[in-house]
Amino acid sequence: MVEAAAAFVAWLGVSMIVLADGRRGLGLGVALAGLGLAAIVFQGHGLVAAAALAVGAAIAAARRLVSGSAGWQIMPPGSTPRLVLCIGAGLLALWIGFGITTGTGAALRFAVMSVVGLAGARVLASDDPAVLLTAVALLALAIAAAAGLSHSAPGMWPYVAAGLIAAAVGWLPVRTPDAA
Amino acid sequence: MPSAAVLAPVALPLAAAAVIAIFGLAGFNLGRIAAAAGGWSVVATLLAIWLPVRSSLELTLGQLGYGSAFDLRIDGVTFAFGMMIALPAALLLTLQPRAWQEVVLSMLGLTAAMAAVEAGGVVLTAIAGGTAATIAMVLLDTEDPRARRPSWGLLLAGWLALTWVGVILQVGGGTAVYSAVPVATVTGPIFALVAASAVLASCLFPWRTWPAELWARPSLRAAGVTIATLYPLGFYLLVRAYELGDGHYPHPLFNVLLAVIGIAAAAAAAARAQAAATRREFLGEVIPGFGGFALTAIALGTALGLVAGLILLATASALVACLALLPDRAGIAPLLTIAAAVGLPPGIAFGARAIGIEATFEAGDFLGLIGVAAAAAWATWMVGGARAIGLPGGRGHPAAETFPRVSMLIAALTLISGPALAAIQFGFAAPVAAEVMPSSAGSLGGGLASVVTVSSVLPVVILFVPLLVIGVAIYASTGTSPIRTQARPALFKFPVGSASGRVWAGIRAATVPEQYRSILSVRELEAAAVGASPVLWLAALVALAFAVTR
Amino acid sequence: MPPDATEIIVFIALVLGFALAFAPAQSPRRSLLVRGGTGLAGTVAIAAVPTFDLAILVLLTLGVLHAAAGGKRAFAIRLRAPLLAVAMLALAVVLARVEGPVVLARFAAVGLVAGLAAGIGLLPYLHPFDADDAAASSPVAWIAFIGPVLAAVVVARAQGLLTADAGGAFGAMLIGLGLLNMAWGGIATWLTESTTAAWRYSFIADWGLALCGIGLTVSDGRRGALLVLLTIVLGRLPLYLVFRQAAAAKTATERPVNLVVAAMLAGSAPFAGFAARVLLLRGATQLYWPLALVLAAGMLLWLPGSLRLGRSIGAPRRRQALGVALMLAANIAAGLYPLPLLEAARL
Question: Which residues contact B241 (CB under 8 A, 6 or more apart)?
């Protein structure tokens, strides 16, 4: 039950990132998605792994709150396709995670697939560096979480590395294109 | 003789190239001495290795990494083709002055060609032959980037085809070594590839290709070396193909087809030669003509045909040197060269062609008709040669590169060596037949004085010596002064030549119709592909996912 | 670390050294060192990390750093393809690890192939390209510097992730994409208007061969693919760097050195490209001979474009000429005797 709720929170968080253009919306999205993924990982792989993801997400969220477009800008005009995408991707991930695939860890499967899919789609569709870097941070967290699907113990390094990437990527200076 | 000796004909010119290059980069041109040393060392080592024992010597070292071991061999075939390649190259390198860069490339080309004929397996031959082709292109470009050179695509296609043959033999038969390939592995399709690669490697086509075109270059330094090193390689493949098939091609149809290609090449060369506007243009068709006759003879599938073809090839290789050293002005040198080239008696070309035609009649069936065609082509050459004596010389070549006396000597030697035909067959060509046609090579006989065929005996010494005496007497009683060079009409115009040119021009000028250009616009297609459209990417992903569910 | 990836990394380091040592005096060596060193460190990390997840994370980091480093194209444009690669690889890993219908494993193979193609920058996932971009900022960094190691790692990991059935689909897709890229790259090199773009397409053509070799499940295919990757890293990439200098000086010449370079780029004997072709033909013949026929015919497409590329490097002088000569010599050595390279990669 906790895992299912955490998976829903993760989906909610990444959907927020897809639907929001403002830094508050993006920050909240990172925080929610990171929290959801950390909660799922905590159930399966312990405190250290979850803490790494959570701290990384927190730092990324904090950074996002102070850089980027002002305000929330959740569902700006013309964002209906994005909403459809979030719902559709969520349903698809739900079907695959809980319906087609078997075994334990259905919530993890759902969360990872929805976060990876939606974060990847956000990267393809946006031009705003703040949005892109936020999606990158979430992508890193989701990839680390996917390590938990492996049959062998993944160790803590994927989680630590993902946390570091998520925390650091928000500070990356993005150069404007060189003049022709 | 230690087996490592087989490395010498390959290693020595390579070492010479390295030494010349080092000195050249340091600012010292070692000149023709170093070039001559490199070239003649190959000839000397071949003679030193082969003549004492006249049996195969092989060196096999470790694997190279692509399924072939480092396997070099000197046998009768290697000796014959090695001499055909090395002798004219050595002579040209000795006499003609060159920049050190051209000498280095010539040495490398000689190395690669020798490696190709010494290679013990098909794959190594393909690699070495491909290398020789690459080096030839660079050499020709170094001398004159604007002058004609072979189609690199055709050469590459030929050697790539042979590479494929080699790997098929490795996969299917376990080995591509000439002497070890199971006969059953050499099927019709595989032989078709071998034949295709041979035809492409030497461009044995009825239309005018590089063996004729290179003679039109302003300088013949690179052309001579290129033709000497590259042209025999295609024939080498066809001779080795007999070894692969234990003395036969997989089907008689291949013999017929190759013989037809050969006679078509010879006849077409004759037709172009008799319509040549200058003597140089006529002489440019000599090598393709010889090649055509040689291919016809080699393809017959009999030992007699094989030796006739080899002797024709050897004559052609001598004429490569002769033509490269021949100046374009009138005189006794071009007269003797033309006489040697058209196969006047009692020359070696005359004897070899006679034996070749005899072999076609003895082979019987359709091949006999090819013999008739060969005789007709030969007659055309004779007439064309008579016409060419009075043609203008051509645009000329640098005097420093021409040596009319040497050229005349080579031509004279080919003319007076007719009586030695049997000896040449015995010493030079028969070992090749023994190597690749062991079961039928025994039919060759006659010793040093006569050539024995299935149906007759040709006493070459008895017949040709009087002819030689008569020929010398006729020459002594006449002279070249009455010859007036002038443009002369051709006996007949080759109708296909202009038509094919018009067809090619039409193909080159073809464009996509206006109404279809938007569909077939390369630029728009490229823009769509590099546009990084997420829709395209996702569509590709869906397509892949669909494909794996089938 | 996979042995073939290790070997490729060594050669990448050599090429970086080549670029630093033989670049003209006015080249920004510091920038080259920083970017090249970062890329090299990233490729080492991709190969050295113990799990595939970590390798994907390293790839993600490299993608973001490369996009943020600047260039003629916008950050968003530069980021898309690498991120798509990361996303597809991550999804592939998920699908490979979960339990479910057999088709999921095949979809995992799809993700691995698509992710690999997107990471390298091959059809249909070509990276956006600006001819004025510096070499280190352009997609050539992915296709010739990071891509070879990425391919070695993905292929090595795929063997542990995929089932036998999915492995077959993996190989078949690689061959299909390989043929597509061969054809496109070969023709586009010849016909495209921009010479810089022609160079990029020539890399794509070579990758087509490499993908075909990887997709052939026999060892000769892998050997051939390794040699192709080595010719990309040790042959084509250094010459591309020489071309960039010549392009800046607007020189194109038709000297013998240009023809030799063209021969090397076309995969003629005696260069390493020809040895690679021998091995690929062996592999294809063992598996399915019509594929060998298609490959052999496709190999002829290299020639017209290579002649163009050979002319474009101009006439190298002094240090550059020495560098080109060394590179050609290394290629010839690898072409005539590739066994040590193959044994070092345990192939």
Answer: B186, B191, B194, B195, B198, B249
